[in-house]
Amino acid sequence: MVESGMPIVVAYRGSYLAGVLFSAAMDAPSQSPAVIAMRETWSGQTGAYIYGPVCVAPTERGQGLLVKMYASLVDQLPNREAVLFIRQDNIASIRAHKSLGMHQVAQFRFDDNEYLIFSDSKLPPA
Q1: Angle 100-103-105 (CA atoms, 0-180°, nearest 5)?
Q2: 22 has which bridge partners?
Q3: Cα 59 to Cα 13: distance, rounded to the nearest angstrom
């Protein structure tokens, strides 16, 4: 379910869907158990929002599309903390989000997998 009022960034190359980046309110009512587990571990600052999921077409990866979609989202949600989780073994996603200036603030275990929680907050982790 997509929550109204929160941005969804959609990127096209011509008529080709190149990428999409979703966002949701931290307290959105219809959340997956993994999001609830993340939120119980790190709920972020006042006004924080859930960043993601993000999908970039394989042909577009490594070409700066994620940077552009993230910049668009930040423009639409200024001065708010983005919070996301990444499976610990997803090295490509960890690297990509670190390149955006995001950093790990916590971690949690869910469904026999370890997840890292990332934030774009400029404040140090609590």
Answers
A1: 150
A2: 8
A3: 11
